[in-house]
Amino acid sequence: MAAEPWQGAARTVLLAASVAGLFPPVAALFEGSMRMHLLVQMPLLAVCGGYWVCRSTGLKRWLERFDPSGYIALVVGSGWLIYWMLPISLDLATFEPSVRLLKIVTVPVCVGAALTWSWLRLGPIGRGVMLLEAWAILGRLGWVYLISPVQLCSNYLIDDQQRTGSLLLSAALISAVGIALWAVFGPFRKSHRTELE
Amino acid sequence: MTHWRMSARTAIGIVLAGGLVTALLWQRTAGFSAFTYETWRRVDVAREPAPVSDWRLQNAQGDLVRLSHWNDETLLVGFIYTSCPSVCVALGSRYQQLQRTLQADPSSDVHLLSISIDPDRDTPQQLAEYRRRHAGRQSSWTVARPADEQVLDDMIRETGLRVIPDQLGGFSHSDSLHWIRNGELLRISDWRDPELEKMITDGS
User: Fold this and answer.
1) Do B91 and B124 lie in a common domain?
2) Chain B residues 12-51 within an 8 A CB cutoff of chain A
3) Rounded CA gap, A42 and B54, in Å?
4) What is the pTM of this model?
């Protein structure tokens, strides 16, 4: 399969941005604020893994063999997502090099790739559950960060934490409205109106 | 009748994956008890006391003292900086209360120690002023700053303290209290803990 040049470029950029997170100046940029860490770097790493699953036939063949249903990937992906939402993991990743390495290596594979694979394998109901759970996570986490009177991460100030919380809630709201619009006006509409009996 | 089938291999895979992720979560949160770094420090020290080196400090009188000066006494160490508008004021009031408890119980071998994390600005005069502001007495409450940058780095590394600059030219820092005896960090407590008085009089 001949990849188009832009795909190669996109892959290179994604991979470079993810690996660069290991080097102190880039790490300082990504981890300097909670917003960048949680809302830019983490999604970037996850997208990197998701992109890999979508593009690699070899990986798909391997997953097809070991996890045809996508359930194992779902368990790994959601469990590992919870792991990286804990304030302690976020904190340790900013000053423990081993935890930072763990983040850079495992978030693309065990969150991004795993959740993408299970999404590809699940039917409409499974996907609906995944979407609902994603909103619930964004909402819960955003709410906790917004209203918590204590600083939850030792490395991030409380105003950064609150701003992260409101951004998470905004992300939940915007994606919920977007997907609701898509579900109502999108391809699920009946193409022919049936007459009332 | 159900159409839902799952191969035995998938079921085993789910159980193994779930078990592995749960084990990793268990390990990171010290058995689902610590979800923030600050609580994790407390659990970690409670499990295994951490050695601390013999910090060189300068007290509010300008004298150099080492941690070993208080050998065979239990130190209750809090980290502060005197220009801090929020938590260090609360810590000062708490120490004032604790000092009252100590005065009421002369048999206690606990000594209060506030150490500045801002040694550049906190001169001995500033430190003395901080204690005076909280009506503290020199007898059982020492306010000091690390003698040099190296000592500050050692303190932060050995206790796992987190100190980050805030936007107001100060610091955001861990406000826990550290129980140190004979060069060992034995326990980390919340300064709000109502049990502190009891721990002081019981000789912790």
Assistant:
1) yes
2) 13-14, 17-18, 21-22, 24-25, 28-29, 34-38, 40
3) 41
4) 0.86
User: pLDDT digit string (tens) for A129-157?
Assistant: 999 999 999 999 999 999 999 999 999 99
Identify which of A72, A83, A155 has the shortest CB distance to residue B162. A155
Q: Which domain does B13 fall in, by range? A: 2-45
Selection from B24, B93, B126 nearest residue A89 by Cα: B24
Q: Does A31 touch chain B (CB under 8 A)?
A: no
Domain co-membership, B37 together with B54: no
Which is nearest to B15 in space by CA: B5, B3, B4, B23? B23
Diameter over CA atoms, chain A: 69
Smallest Cβ distance to A79: which of B7, B18, B40? Answer: B18
φ and ψ of B115, to 5 deg: -115, 130
B172 and B103 both lie in a single domain: yes
Residue B40 sits in the same domain as residue B59: no
